[in-house]
Amino acid sequence: MGDDFERSLGRPKAGLGDGDPDGDGPTDAERALADGERRFQSLVESVSDWIWEVDERGVYTYSSPKVLDLLGYAPEELVGRTPFDLMPPAEAERIGTVFGALAAARQPIVRLENVNLHKSGRPVVLETSGRPVFDDAGEFRGYRGVDRDVSERWQHEARHALAERVFQSTEDGILVVDEANRIVSVNAACERITGYSAKELVGQDPRLLTSKRQTREFYAALWSALLETGRWQGELWNRRKSGDFYVQRTSISTIPGPTPGAIWRVAVFSDVTRERAHAEEIEFQATHDPLTGLPNRRLVSVLLERALARAHHDGMQTAVLMLDLDGFKHVNDTYGHHWGDQLLIHAAARLSGCLRGADTFARLGGDEFLAVLDGDVGPEQARAVAHKLIAELQRSFTVEGAEVFVTASVGVAIAPRDGADAASVIAHADAAMYQAKAAGKNDCRFFTPSMHQAASERLRGESELRRAVAAGQFVLHYQPIVELSERRLVKAEALVRWQHPERGLLAPGQFIALAEETGLIVPLGAWVAQEAARQVDVWRERLPKGFRVSVNVSPAQFQRSDVGALFDAIAQRCGVGLEGLELEITEGTFLQDSGGSARDALRRLVERGGRVALDDFGTGYSSLSYLLHLPIHTIKIDRSFVLGAPTEPRSRALVEAILRLAESIGMEVVAEGIETEQHAAFLLGAGCPLGQGYLFSKPLAAADFERGYLSERVAAHRT
Q1: Mutual orientation of helices 597-607 and 563-574 as an angle, nearest 10°?
Q2: Strand, helix or coil at 22?
Q3: What's the confidence (pLDDT) of residue 334?
Q4: Which of 222, 240, 378, 662 has the most CB within a 10 Å radius?
Q5: Closest CA to 687 of 656, 644, 651
Q6: Among 717, 716, 645, CA closest to 687
Q7: In this structure, what are the phi and psi dihedrals at residue 705, rounded to the nearest 5 degrees?
Q8: pTM for this one?
């Protein structure tokens, strides 16, 4: 490295100057020379460029102090080294060849750009100029020259050249970002598509363009692909400067940056909004009823299959309601198809408004509708929804200025009990609906293959549950409750799971009702409370300040046992006290508390440091006297309101009213069932402080909860 340069310079014959060996002291000429050298040294040290000298071997014999600013080396560190020692290997080879040719010809060096390495390791581009030095005899003695830092200019020219090459390759929008994820260049098509000028975009983070319509998980997968393969292709929802959303088909590639080791990325994209809208229109027409705009049989079957898969995965139940309008044929035959169509449109709108945002309401054809109640929905909840739909149709409709009356017959099927796939569940709900019609209409019926089979299954379930309680086949999962503003973990809810030896992990909806009916809820509930307290004690030193684990206590536990005595015993046994626990109760606790024992037990618990949360607030009678006269600290807004709040005005109004009520009386509020960033953003904007739901985390086994949350004490990484 640099051998060509050294060979061309030749070996030294004498120094750069000879002194007078004789004489008793400095002559006038010598003093003048010394003064000149001092002035030269002062001048050298005052200029901003780096001045240097090398001998005929290419070894530094002098360096001005400016090298410390440019390359991080003190001048004395360079003496004895060559310029090539400061360069990357490939650059040293290239520059050595150039220097060698110039030195062989005794030619000056004119503005030769070369990459050097700062002492810290970062690259620095220098512009080198120098002239050969000869002694009095005309012998070549090396070079004297100057270097200046041209890194900024060099990078600018490299970026410009890169942009020009890329821009010429496509008519699509192009956006280039550097290793710091800052936009360094855009083309005219990018300006036209986004509405931003290049001046407004350059230097910004590309997130300026994001629409926030895609999840964090989507972007995590995008970055994972870029890091693993250097490329990503797909569709992105972005936002123009005007605020309009648009879809862009995007290809992102990784390219070398303008300096060694730098990595830049180029996004080439096209606006496919119209193309996407056309495709969506075609898809909508294929999957929706043209009259009512509701999902059709094809789409609801797909959505039901997904709901069944989720229910199976989470160990939950899904309810399907088949609804048929009683008397519709009479209206159609009497007033004509136009009236019938108008009645169907009005009925569809009214019935859809009775369901939650997460539910699906579809028209199968004629006057038949199907509702899929997503989530863990058991028979009683399904029955309540069915009666709500029936009651909604009992109000008259106005069609063409005339008053029209219809009723409805509803059939209900509960999966997986009544079928494992969409076709069988729909068929069973349809059979139940015809039973309702046969029984006199304007009512609902549940699908029942046979009474004997149902009784046998219940007896078998009770037997299995008793064995499970005795054998300890239950585990607790913990779902984080976070502070919405910071996504910080503040507490958790303990949720029981049955580790069934044959059916796997079962959710509470599959056995709690049976446990309450049989009285097994008492030993099961006692175990849940004891295990939660034990776990709090294990985690005590790692928990955030004020952290509590909430435990659900059913009305049946208050009726059948002394809950206050139970928790007193737990506090003494675990040593955790009640300050680490919070009891979650429902309004049913007080509806069945005619003697006031539940109220007394709660007051004793609060006196000992416990706290009480009112779960599913707003779904029962919601008597405000509970909040006034009972020791309740926390209100939990039911997920049915949360799911619809961002888009449904009535749900939104209810949530906001609950928040205002809680704030006015100094109660804490937790919103349940937060599944999307839209839910979280709405709740945070409405003033809700705390929340839980699948957006942050599903319920986790204790070990997973510990690894995922207690190691960092935050929940932000779960979003």
Answers
A1: 20
A2: coil
A3: 67
A4: 662
A5: 656
A6: 645
A7: -65, -40
A8: 0.41
Angle at CA of residue 433, ends 428 and 438, nearest 5°: 125
> Taking a C-beta distance cutoff of 8 angstroms, is the pair 651, 645 a contact?
yes
Please give the Cα distance from 144 to 75 (Å, whole number): 15
CB atoms within 10 A of CB 551: 26
H-assigned helices in 214-256: 216-229
Structure tokens at 229: 């393969």
Average pLDDT estimate for 306-318: 87
In 288-428, at which residue ranges do the beta strands (DSSP E only) sit?
318-326, 360-365, 368-373, 397-399, 402-404, 407-415
| C-alpha–C-alpha distance, residues 525 and 530, integer Å | 9
Task: Please tell me the distance from the alpha carbon of residue 425 to that of residue 363, in angstroms, as a whole number.
Answer: 16
* Other beta carbons within 10 Å of 138: 6
Q: Are 614 and 626 in contact (CB under 8 A)?
A: yes
Q: How far is CA 416 from CA 445, 582, 678, in A?
A: 17, 33, 31
- The one-letter code for the residue type at 400 is E
* Rounded distance between C-alpha atoms, residue 498 and residue 16, angstroms: 92
Contact predicate 185/159, CB 8 Å: yes
Q: What are phi and psi of 577, to 5 degrees?
A: 70, 175
In this structure, what token pair is assigned to residue 203? 């230097």
* pLDDT per position as a tens digit, 102-128: 999 999 999 999 999 999 999 999 999
Please compute, for residue 650, the number of CA atoms within 13 A of its CA located in the half-sphere on the CB side: 7
What does each C-alpha distance from 34 to 26, 29, 573 come to in angstroms? 10, 9, 93
Domains of the chain: 3-149 (3.30.450.20), 154-276 (3.30.450.20), 290-449 (3.30.70.270), 474-718 (3.20.20.450)
**Averaged pLDDT, 435-453:** 76
The phi, psi pair for 104, rounded to 5°, reads: -60, -35
Q: Residue 696 in contact with residue 672, Cβ under 8 Å?
A: no
Burial annotation 508-540 (CB, 10 A radius, 16+ → b, else e):
bbbbbbebbebebbbebbbebbbbbbbbbeebe
Q: Is the peptide bond before 416 cis (omega within 30 degrees of 0)?
A: yes
Non-local (6+) Cβ contacts of 312 within 8 A are: 416, 420
User: Tens digit of pLDDT for each residue in 602-616?
Assistant: 888 888 778 888 887
Q: What are phi and psi of 495, to 5 degrees?
A: -125, 130
Q: How many CB atoms lie within 10 A of CB 486?
A: 11
Which conformational region is residue 200 in: left (phi greater than 0), alpha (psi within -120 to 50 degrees), or beta?
Answer: alpha
**Integer Cα distance of 612 and 417 in angstroms:** 35
669 near 659, Cβ under 8 Å?
yes
* C-alpha Rg value of the chain to the nearest Å: 39
Residue-wise DSSP of 341-362: HHHHHHHHHHHHTTS-TTSEEE
Q: Is the dihedral of CA 542, 547, 551, 552 positive or negative?
A: negative
How far is the C-alpha of 104 from the C-alpha of 592, rounded, in Å? 105
pLDDT at position 501 is 92
For the chain, the first-to-last Cα distance in angstroms comes to: 53
